[in-house]
Amino acid sequence: MRIIALLKEFSKSTRLYRITKTATIAQFHSRQSLKLPEICWLRASVWIYPSAVLTLGSIAFHTYASGQEEEDDSWRPPFRKDLPTFRAEEVKLHNEKDRKLWVTFRGGVYDITEFVDVHPGGKIIMQAVGGPLEPHWQRYNFHKQEDVYSMLEEMRIGNLHPDDVEDAIHDCNTVAEEVKPGYTPKLHPSMNVKSVQPLNAETGIGELVESFYTPNELFFKRNHHAIPTVDEHNYKLKVSGVGLEEREFTLEDLKTKFQPVSVVVTLQCAGNRRQDFNAVKPVRGLQWGPGAIGNAKWTGALLVDVLKEAGFQSIVENGAEHVQFTGLDDNGTGEPYGASIPIDVAMKPGNQVILAYSMNDKPIPVEHGFPVRVVVPGVVGARSVKWLASIVLSKDESPSQWQQSDYKTFNPSTDWPTANFSTVQAIQELPVQSAICSPAENSSFPRGTKTIAVKGYAWSGGGRDILRVEVSADNGNTWHSADLHLHIHERRNARFAWTLWTCEVPVEENSGPITLLCKATDSSHNCQPESPNSIWNIRGLVNNSWHKVQVHME
């Protein structure tokens, strides 16, 4: 089928369309009354594939791209006289691969058997087999695009009987009434909205270095479902698994039964700086700049203390190998966000994994996980699950699709048809990273300027300290050491907060455009790679190549 071939040729395509849309926060809030998401705005131009950016049945990971066009809910598949007509009862029989996988959509019947095999979110699309797509697309409205409809039609095998079309419409309307857009926070004007539903927004790059502690309202927002609202008075955290007594803890229990511990931890999205990979080859996913990172003081109960209360003795005696976390944000799909960390990470002295209920000395905001989220220092933000519902000690990793089929990297030559997520380790610790936050891209300076004041952040995973940051204004021929600003004292190998830095960089007189470069080295002498070419991957994750900002002399 041509659609499968199209997907397999995804990365080889050279056809790109440029979409430029600017969203103000006022525009964003003017749409809060919508029951379902209608549009994803951009603050910048991005390049996207015309057909392959949106694929059927997937959740935001893998297919969400900044730059969605206005949704089109008017399309209906034409009646095809050259194809047979099926009843819904017959479609229901096709729900296993040995009988082919069929779905229906607004009068059409489609065979998606081959598509599931090349679709990273196949687990989700399997929920629709044997029935209508409409209810599922009500939950994820971003599928309602012309390109998706065209792709779907290439899998068309028949027509759905008119009587059954009416039943599907009824089911769709029922789901529309059930689906809630979730909590919508008031966004700071500087936040760059990457997607509306689920809400994803990054901190304006200039604001990042204004404070060692990122203000709660400026902390980047990363969600995989609609944001749930949880009644703190009815909240219960379930703890169970290998070698444990099954226990439940209320928010009050976590606050009063356990010694509160505060840790300063930087959380970074695995996709931070994804957009820079597009210079090598376009990648799928939210087009994050360098603002998908933030630093905060988190207060809560130590995970190890809570596990001991449930009967945990030691790693050797317990026998578990992983700690699984599951959230409350399933948005009616039955697939809440989940993740896991190795048990040695959870129990390592000094790591201080906490069940946080406070962020910067205030109750955690709803969008950041109220009433409780896990905070895993030194590890990718994807493992710090929000709206924490359960903790399970297990011999296995979390079965969540975000642990099994996402947040993993491949070599630059691996493309979607050859990517086998089951053979690749999930990302845990992140490598050394730095970025220039000031001056901004395309800033102008008067001719005759002799030095430019450059500011930014640096951070490394696993508790590694930042040894040095270097900045260049002549394409890396000459490097200047930045001044590192250490705001708090942290133990060796337990440096979980970022380092802010400044550097006065000399520039040549009367020069034209200047490319500022920065790179960091951590306490294990790990250095950032010069180019994104060698670390490019299909998911666009873990880009820690030298950061570049171009400025001009006028």
UniProtKB/TrEMBL annotation:
Does the record carry Heme as a key word?
A: yes
Q: Which residues form the Cytochrome b5 heme-binding domain?
A: 83-161
Names of the cofactor(s): heme b; Mo-molybdopterin
- Keywords annotated in UniProt: Heme, Iron, Metal-binding, Mitochondrion, Molybdenum, Oxidoreductase
Chief localisation class: mitochondrion
UniProt GO molecular function = heme binding; molybdenum ion binding; molybdopterin cofactor binding; sulfite oxidase activity
The alphabetized list of GO BP terms reads: sulfur compound metabolic process
Q: Where in the cell is it found?
A: Mitochondrion intermembrane space
Q: Which PROSITE patterns match?
A: CYTOCHROME_B5_1, CYTOCHROME_B5_2
Give one Pfam family, short name only: Oxidored_molyb
The protein's Enzyme Commission number: 1.8.3.1
Name the pathway: Sulfur metabolism; Energy metabolism; sulfur metabolism
Q: Which InterPro entries match?
A: Cyt_B5-like_heme/steroid-bd, Cyt_B5-like_heme/steroid_sf, Cyt_B5_heme-BS, Ig_E-set, MoCF_OxRdtse_dimer, Mopterin_OxRdtase_euk, OxRdtase_Mopterin-bd_dom, OxRdtase_Mopterin-bd_sf
Q: Name one GO cellular component term.
A: mitochondrial intermembrane space
Q: What's the name of the protein? A: sulfite oxidase
